[in-house]
Write a structure and sequence with these properties.
By secondary structure, the protein is an all-alpha fold. It has nine helices and no strands.
Length: 205
């Protein structure tokens, strides 16, 4: 169905399809948007989009040495990623709404970007998904095609996070401190469960 679409548009749709499924990154970005504002939520999503772009580049350019290294070390990467999810889950669960405003100043935004980038990049199995999707959508073999596809993947992924961030941000003004405390608890519990799931289902054991 997508073979007649322009290459960039097909890559754009790939980016959305990779980013859209609800997982720990989605929960984290929603919670940060509600707690810290739209910019915090979008930068968190942008970290995931950057990791998606790098994995897309490996698949599009055929960087087999790097991709093989990531897949071969999937166990350790997922171990660190799972433990980091547990840490984020506990931290989010215990966090008080009154303390959240200070976290978005200075290095706060950058740390939010790095945390989601780290969580996404420590799931090397994602590259297998990109490789399979690219194999089915790569029609042209000209030199510029990989660049166009990588740009499209990043635009699609970042566009999804921007749209999600905007939609969730509309709800923020209606929430009080009581609501935010429960959002922290629920988000923290969900992220913690994702961490347990990641550790139980580690690859390469």
């Amino acid at each position: 169905m997508t073979e007649n679409l322009p290459l960039f548009l097909r890559a754009f749709l790939i980016g959305i399809s990779i980013a859209a499924p609800v997982g720990p990154i989605g929960v984290l970005c929603i919670r940060r948007t509600l707690s810290n504002g739209k910019l915090a939520g979008f930068l968190s999503g942008l970290g995931a989009a950057t990791a998606d772009m790098l994995y897309g580049a490996m698949a599009a350019f055929g960087l087999t040495i790097i991709s093989s290294f990531l897949v071969e070390n999937a166990f350790w990467l997922q171990l660190f990623g799972g433990l980091f999810l547990l840490y984020l889950g506990i931290k989010t669960f215990l966090e008080k709404p009154a303390e959240q405003a200070a976290q978005t100043r200075q290095g706060g935004y950058f740390s939010m970007y790095l945390s989601t980038f780290f969580l996404t990049i420590t799931n090397p199995i994602t590259i297998l998904s990109f490789a399979a999707i690219f194999a089915g959508t790569m029609i042209g073999q000209n030199v510029n095609s990989p660049f166009v596809m990588v740009a499209g993947v990043f635009a699609g992924s970042a566009g999804w996070w921007l749209a999600l961030n905007f939609g969730v941000g509309l709800m923020r003004e209606r929430l009080n401190q009581y609501h935010m405390a429960w959002i922290n608890r629920i988000s923290g519990a969900v992220i913690f469960l994702f961490g347990i799931y990641a550790l139980i289902n580690m690859q390469g054991r």
